[in-house]
Every structure is written in C-alpha cells, then in structure tokens.
Amino acid sequence: MTPTAATAVTDQDLVVLAEQLGRPPRGVVGIAARCVCGRPLVVRTAPRLDDGTPFPTTYYLTCPPAVAAVSTLEASGLMKELTARLAEDEELAAAYRRAHEAYLADREELGHVEEIAGISAGGMPTRVKCLHVLAGHALAAGPGVNPIGDEVLALVRDEWRPDRCTC
Ligand SMILES: [Zn+2]
What we know:
Layout: H1 11-21, E1 28-34, E2 40-45, E3 59-61, H2 64-75, H3 78-88, H4 90-109, H5 131-141, H6 147-155
Antiparallel strand pairs: 1-2, 2-3
The structure holds zinc ion.
C-alpha cells in the first residue's frame, strides 16, 4: 500500500501537525501524503504564507520518525555524493530536471509567486541540498517522479517506510 493521494486538511490534522512540528503549522493547504494510520506525512503548503513570505517548499515532510531517518542519511554526507552523480549521469540529471519542473507545476496550481518563480526546492534542478524536501516530494508525487527522492526513501527503508506506521 502506498500513501494516499492529497487530501483536504482537517482540524484534527492541524492538531497532529502542531504536535509533529512543535509549533503551529503555517500555510497548510492540504495533506500531500498520509501514513497508513491516517496521520499526515507530508503537508502541501501555500507558496505565500499569510504574512506575505514567499514559501518555495510546497511539500514539507512532517512525520518525526521519517524526518529522523532522513536526517541520519543527511549526516552521512550523501548530498555531496548525489550532486556529483548528477554532474556525471545524464539520464539521472534529466529525470531530476523533470522532477524540478513537476514541482514547479504543482506549486503553480496553488498560485503564482513572482519572487520564487522558477525556483523549486531541495537543490533542484542541479544540486542535492535537502533530502527531506526530496523525500517529501517523492512521497507526495508517488514513485517515478523524483529519482533522488525515490532513492532516499529506498535507503531509509529499513528504518522508516510509508506503509508501516511508526508514528
Ligand atoms: Zn502512522
């Protein structure tokens, strides 16, 4: 079973999100992926927050065990290795660029924000800077959209996976 498709945010979701994040969630417009238990895994966030701040990270990973598993991977220095691979592997680079375009298209559906036009997140399209962002995108979009995000999810699979609740 894969995480469910994007759904509306409920009052209960907002309570869980505040708990997961340790602060009130900002700019939430939907739940982009849920755990099998129903709790949010990834939130869909407005491209401009209520206070006017442009917010490029449309898909934000919120589930604490998932965040922790990806943080462990980041600590291993994988971003540098993946960025180097993007420079060498044309096929991977092309797929990653398509992921960047898909990310921008999704965000554009939520509204156009000039300050961040053409800028996605996580280092896309040519670098790998934040594995949380890429894993969040992979969970929201499903397999086959973000190759690096898919790889991150595969690498943390022993520690955390979306089809097994560890909330
Ligand atoms: Zn769960």
